[in-house]
Amino acid sequence: MNIPLMRSCREVTRMVSRGEDRELSSGERVTLRAHLAICRGCRNAIDPLRFLRRVACSLQDGDEPSAGRT
Prior knowledge:
It contains three helices and no strands. The chain has helices spanning about 10-20, 25-40, 40-60. The longest helix has 21 residues, at about 40-60. It is mainly alpha-helical.
C-alpha cells in the first residue's frame, strides 16, 4: 500500500476521526505523525476534536454528559 506522507489538514482530521472508530494502519499512523510534527494547527485541534467526538458518541448512546452536575 502506498500512502503519501503529506496529507492536507482536512485529510488528517478525517484520519483522526477514523482512528476513534478503528485502529489505524501503520502507514496511516506514520502519515498522521509526520503531519502533526509540522502542523501546529492540527496538533492544537486534535485533543478537542477527540473530546467532542466522544461526547457526541456518548449522547447518541443515550448517556448524558456529567459535567456541571452535582
